[in-house]
Amino acid sequence: MPVQRSVSTWQRPEPGPASAERTALIEDVADRVVRLGPGRLRVAVDGLTASGKTSLGHELGAAIARRGRPVLRASLDDFKRPWRDRHRYDRESGQGYYRNAFDYPAVVRLLLAPCAQSGSGRCVLCMIDPLTQVDHSSVVTEAAADAVLVVDGVFAFRSEVDAHWDFRVWLAVDEGTSVRRGAARDQDWAGSDAEAIHRDRYLPAERIYLAEVDPVARADIVIDNTFFDQPRVLRRSLRSAP
């Protein structure tokens, strides 16, 4: 069963072959998701910046697809407000990034509500392309009645969208790991400013989120993703237990 990806040009590569430990963990999470029921399901993968959300989203989506369920993949990065409007609000500071970068009403209207069990199934997987700034909100994807939507992104458990998830994954890494990985990842586009962007914008935004929302407590499963080859389950909710 193929995984349906969005038209966004902001596509991270598929992760390489996984260790036995990582494969076993991904397969376990996939089993827990499909056991939730036969109708449409919406899964969120959250965590600090550069905690490995997109890679795990790809791995989890592929594992669910191998179980015969149609899978849709999306990223909250594709639902940010367009850069042409940035003069209307502060998006450069941690506070401004957390409060203003994402268009949560659009996330619900275009993606999460249509992918609900009672939704129309006609969803948009990408609103604004982060790289080209092209508006793709007219590109509609049909979600089958048994489709599983896997969405990665920071701040996914905010109150504006949290009630729409059927399963929540939190990837735990420490702040230093987040900044180090993020700076290395974003060297291509941010250059020498990459570390400062992560330290002075993204990390302060995450601290606000952690203080206001306590996303770790909302997760159905918390995974220590410090070492990709040796991820560890730190906590499972009773709902996600076997």
Using only C-alpha atoms, the radius of gyration works out to 17 Å
CATH superfamily of one domain: P-loop containing nucleotide triphosphate hydrolases
**H/E series:** EHEHEHHEEEEHHHHEE
How many beta-strand runs? 9
Overall, the morphology is globular
CATH fold-level topology of one domain: Rossmann fold
CATH architecture of one domain: 3-Layer(aba) Sandwich
> Total number of helical segments?
8
Describe the fold and architecture:
The protein has eight helices and nine strands. By secondary structure, the chain is α/β, with parallel strands linked by helices. It has a domain at 3-77 and 145-237: Rossmann fold (3-Layer(aba) Sandwich), CATH 3.40.50.300. A hairpin with a 7-residue loop joins strand 8 (221-224) and strand 9. The longest helix is centred in the last third of the chain and has 20 residues, at 194-213. The two termini are 25 Å apart. The mean pLDDT is 93.
List keywords for this structure.
7-stranded mixed sheet; Rossmann fold; 242 residues; 9 strands; alpha/beta
Brief synopsis:
The protein has 242 residues and is an alpha/beta fold.
List the helices and strands and how they pair.
Elements: E1 3-4, H1 20-34, E2 41-47, H2 53-66, E3 71-75, H3 94-100, H4 104-112, E4 122-123, E5 141-142, E6 148-152, E7 167-172, H5 175-185, H6 187-190, H7 194-213, H8 215-218, E8 221-224, E9 232-236
Parallel strand pairs: 1-3, 2-6, 2-7, 3-6, 7-8
Antiparallel strand pairs: 4-5, 8-9
